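Justification of computing resources. Each target in the renewal requires a structure prediction run like the one illustrated here; the chain below, 283 residues long, is used simply to show the kind of job we budget for.
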Amino acid sequence: MKLFRTLLAATAAVSTTLIGVGSAQASEPAVRAPGADFAGIAALSNCSGSLVRYAASQSTDPALILTNGHCFEGGMPSPGQVIVNRASSRSFTLLRPDSSNAGTVRANQVLYSTMTKTDITLYRLTETYAAIASRLNVTPLTLATSPPASGAGMAVVSGYWKRIYTCSVQATIPELREAGWVMKSSIKYQQPGCETIGGTSGSPIVSTSTGEVIGVNNTGNEDGEQCTLNNPCEVDENGNITVDQGAAYGQQTWWLYTCLTATRTIDLNKSGCELAKPAARRH
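Resulting structure tokens:
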């Protein structure tokens, strides 16, 4: 998991590769391309994240923050563990398009968090989208309703490092195993371009054609080991295991739509819901 790369090492790496914010501001285009700025991006204490909305969200809805399951402030969920509707008071820094800090928002609930099948934490904030737009002039990114296709242009936008990686979707991996965790339909990045580092966990994967969030960045194989922490392995439909040292991956987010009610709340018992469920709710 990208969170667990040594941040000191990541700091050294970023000193040579971090995008120069000052120079980017100086030549900032009048119209920004999707995924090319920090609008809607959030910085956490240990990860990255984003202010997100559903396609049908209303301005009066409580706003949402998306990050990884392994960025959950209570610690990494165990394999098979699903956390729902837990109180939270976590704060997040929202960024302006030029990466400067717009201000702070706070959660009051963890709506959903897991590292099983996918790797997401979804927070509900204390303010509505309208209130955040009025107070901070920050608007959310929209979650895509379907998975990305191979070859689709993408950007991993990190609020922690204030850095943008651009590449394309190489493939969808049927199963990714890391330590005891199993993730399904993982997004593999075409390299070079998206050699993500520690602190980029939870960054949204943004479509460079639509600007929608097509996934969430979460891990990569660092040392060439097989299926160990920080060294996920790929498993195909026939159970064959492949190790690709240096590969980076993200996880699906569109599954949230399969569990949404008409009032845009998550119902894990809804027919067709694709998200992992707590053990007591499995059918």
